[in-house]
Amino acid sequence: MQLKYLYLIFIVVCITSCSKKNEITTGKLNPSFGSRNHITVVIEDDLWNGEVGDSIRKRLAQTGFGLDKDEPIFDLDQYSPEIFSTKAKTSRNIVVFSNSDDYLFTLEKSFYATPQNLFFVRANSNKELIQNFNTHADSIISVFRKSELNEEQHALVRKELLDTDIVKEFFACTIKIPKTFQLVLEHDNFLWFQKDLPTGNSNLVIYEVPISSIENSKDDIEDNLIKVQDSISKLFIQGSNENSYLITETGFFPSFKPIQIQEFSGYEISGTWEMENDFMSGPFLNIALKDSYYDRYLIFQAFVNYPYKSKRDLLFEMEGIIKTVNFYDNEN
């Protein structure tokens, strides 16, 4: 009788073990978590507190272009391998550093959770570990930014959205804007949406100009984009003081980089705005897309006015909104 019971217990244990093994092999992963633009860094404390950690912070926690000096592009949470817990392993963005005999840089997708980007950076000395990281830092940043933008846009489409038929009517495209924004100004080929904040606002302006305003023999494209931005802002984005209006900060030349949305190429411009004849300032993001069919540059200008508060994630929300633009979801 006792042998029968022992046999039954053995069978139950085998079935349970096989069941658990199947759960692992079938790839059932927990959903990842994390605040927007956060990275979990797994590294020994002595490395983190030394030159390796300095190199990591210099790249992954660098100041965002146009943002205040204390606003990094990513917030970093450091764990030593010994306390890299199950919960921490479900972070959305992870970089694991270690001294090892092998020299390795690799990206694993959805390793502990999903969606997830997990980078492994290894080398056999501190000097080579820094070199390995610096060689691939731009790739790490690009992957994390793309992933975070994707998360931002997924969150956006789950929100209650504003009726933006007027965008379709004016500019022959669609865009997803949360209902927390409202249309505050409408003019020929110009729309201004605004979201109230406790002590400021987030703003999205959409307008179009002829291609010849941007591409001509008088000035280069970068200068013309700034001139157009400033001239449009002077007309429509005015302050409370007399003769005050939004301009590009003259002492801080913006960053330009090429961009492609669907088949439309253009420029992404980041910098700082200020108010002429006033003391207001903040970051802006301008995306200008060339549309040869309509002989225009379609321009999306986002700027945040939120004095003494963090603006990084607010501007990132604006970037997510702008990049939902769709030129094909349009019956006309």
UniProtKB/TrEMBL annotation:
InterPro entries (UniProt xref): DUF4837
Pfam short name (any one): DUF4837
Descriptive protein name: DUF4837 family protein
Organism: Paenimyroides tangerinum
Lineage, top ranks: Bacteria, Pseudomonadati, Bacteroidota, Flavobacteriia, Flavobacteriales
